[in-house]
Design brief:
This protein has about 300 residues and is an alpha/beta fold. About 40% of the residues lie in helices and about 15% in strands. It contains eleven helices and ten strands. The strands form two sheets. An eight-stranded mixed sheet has the order 3-2-1-4-8-6-9-7, sandwiched between helices. The chain has a two-stranded antiparallel ribbon with strand order 5-10. The two termini are about 35 Å apart. About 35% of the residues are buried.
């Protein structure tokens, strides 16, 4: 009998049955023993059928699995639905692998997360395990993963102990007498300005983000994220039917490669600054240096060569 994934999977869905099915089919290969499904409600009558069709995908579970659902009757929006849904999930489980309906993983992503959730379970410095790697092989990593300041969320995993640090309303930022303390971790003025503006906007109750608050929680508590040495999850949700992400960026639809096991662990828990510098420029600030078109062509060429070995 095929083995089952012991770690619970949290699956966040909304109104895209096609991408939901593609991601679900990979989840089905992992056969998790517990599946927690979070769904937002329709914004209007026209979205009702799409939401129902996405939810119907979950009825295809045909393996021994405890399925728990947290379906909203009305539309809460990205910020409140994801944050409240993950609060609910971590009231049920101590650790979990988390996928949204447009994040298509390589099947080895699940074992990668499960092994590292166990390996770092008692290590408070590690708050997040990413499935994304946006480097395209441009930085050498002498292990199966490296430590980063940035928690990428297109396929990830964490523990209840870490999620308890999360606050969707960012009261720690609002109430801090010295916000510069949080920003001092960034050497780049552009990045400091980016996060200062982003966090101030969120603290003022503006915007739809839930993930920027998670970045803040990790940084405010000096947490580190694990990033694989290769990309394990591809974002397939960019397009006209996306709720918030309609413009393609370099990091979208990146190819994936399977993890090699057994995992090779870094000898020490130290942030990889060179890798983070590239991630900041292209995944966060989205501003490659120099001629943008030339940089894009070079980046894609390097990425393809790296993915093909």
């Amino acid at each position: 009998m095929k083995s089952q994934l012991a770690t619970p999977i949290v699956f966040i869905i909304y109104k895209r049955p096609e991408t939901t099915r593609r991601v679900f089919d990979v989840i089905a290969q992992a056969r998790p023993r517990k599946l927690l499904v979070i769904a937002d409600g329709p914004r209007n009558v026209g979205e009702t059928a799409q939401c129902q069709a996405a939810r119907a995908t979950i009825e295809s579970v045909n393996w021994d699995c405890e399925v728990l659902t947290e379906y909203a009757d009305t539309n809460l929006g990205l910020k409140r639905r994801v944050s409240s849904g993950l609060d609910w999930a971590f009231s049920q489980v101590e650790e979990a692998i988390i996928l949204e309906d447009d994040c298509l993983p390589d099947v080895t992503f699940f074992r990668f997360c499960e092994e590292l959730l166990g390996y770092y379970r008692e290590e408070p410095r590690i708050m997040h395990i990413s499935g994304d790697n946006f480097l395209g092989g441009r930085v050498s990593v002498d292990a199966s993963y490296y430590f980063s300041r940035y928690p990428h969320i297109w396929g990830w995993a964490t523990w209840k102990r870490a999620w308890q640090r999360y606050d969707v309303d960012m009261r720690l930022w609002k109430d801090s007498p010295n916000r510069q303390e949080f920003l001092s971790q960034f050497r780049s003025r552009n990045e400091r300005n980016f996060w200062r503006s982003r966090w101030a906007r969120i603290a003022a109750g503006k915007g739809h983000s839930w993930a920027s608050q998670w970045v803040f929680a990790c940084l405010a508590h000096h947490g580190l994220s694990i990033t694989p040495d290769r990309n394990l999850v591809s974002n397939i949700g960019v397009g006209a039917d996306a709720t918030h992400t309609r413009r393609r960026r370099l990091t979208h639809a990146m190819p994936t490669r399977p993890v090699n096991f057994p995992l090779r662990h870094p000898p020490t828990i130290i942030r990889h600054e060179a890798a983070d510098a590239i991630s900041v420029r292209e995944a966060i600030l989205n501003s490659p240096s120099g001629n943008r078109w030339l940089d894009t062509a070079r980046w894609l060429a390097k990425s393809v060569r790296w993915q093909l070995g």
